[in-house]
Amino acid sequence: MSSQNDAQGAPAPLSHEQDEDDEIVTWWGLVIEGYHATHNGLMDEIADRTGLAPNSFDILIRLLRSPECRLPMTRLAKEAALSSGGFTKVADRLVAAGLIRREPCDTDRRVTYAALTDRGLVTAKEARKVCAQSLRTRLLDPLGHERALMLAEVMRTLRAVNRTD
């Protein structure tokens, strides 16, 4: 983009289209900054109160919300947006901590499930409670129920229209 200056060397005023471009880029920046500030504070609080790193928390919550508290490991890795190797490291730590176990599939030897242990179930429920308490402070208190619901709907729409899988 070329910069144009007036006779005194001052930048030329922005066109209407440039104003709109700047505005939408600014809006997106605010979305990202707000998300990061909220997410980082939330994950820090969860880690401080439960000892769970963000990826471990994410995996335990996904298992908690799944039928029989288990999911195929490849699906869980994909949903958690982790590489196969990255997921294996997190899963190994969760197994070592007694929070999940690996279960073979009865009908397909290629499939292995990650499943919550009894200890993992207790930990996941505790972490969910901590998360909900923090979100009430970080999301509901400043936005209110209606605006928080609207935010969730907006993000659901953006996820649907921009999904690449």
Strand order of the largest sheet: 1-3-2
**The top level CATH class name:** Mainly Alpha
The low-confidence runs, each spanning 5 or more residues with pLDDT under 50, are none
Gyration radius (Cα, Å) is: 22 Å
The tally of domains stands at 1
Largest sheet: 3 strands, antiparallel
Q: What are the secondary-structure elements, in order, as H or E? A: HHEHHEEH
> Helices and strands: which structural class?
mainly alpha
* Percent in helix: 55-70%
CATH domain topology: Arc Repressor Mutant, subunit A
DSSP E strands, number: 3
SS field, number of helical segments: 5
Morphology call: elongated
Quote the beta fraction: 5-15%
CA-to-CA gap between the ends? 34 Å
The CATH superfamily bears the name Winged helix-like DNA-binding domain superfamily/Winged helix DNA-binding domain
Task: Give your account of this protein's structure.
By secondary structure, this protein is mainly alpha-helical. The protein has a single domain (26-162), classed as Orthogonal Bundle (Arc Repressor Mutant, subunit A), CATH 1.10.10.10. Helices cover 67% and strands 8% of the residues. It contains five helices and three strands, in the order H-H-E-H-H-E-E-H. The protein has helices spanning 16-50, 54-64, 73-79, 84-96, 118-162; strands at 70-72, 100-104, 112-116. The chain has a three-stranded antiparallel β-sheet with strand order 1-3-2. It is elongated and about 75 Å long. The protein starts with 15 loop residues before the first helix and ends with a helix. The mean pLDDT is 91. Residues 1-20 are annotated as: Disordered. This is MarR family transcriptional regulator. Residues 21-160 form the HTH marR-type domain. GO terms for molecular function: DNA-binding transcription factor activity. Pfam families: MarR_2.
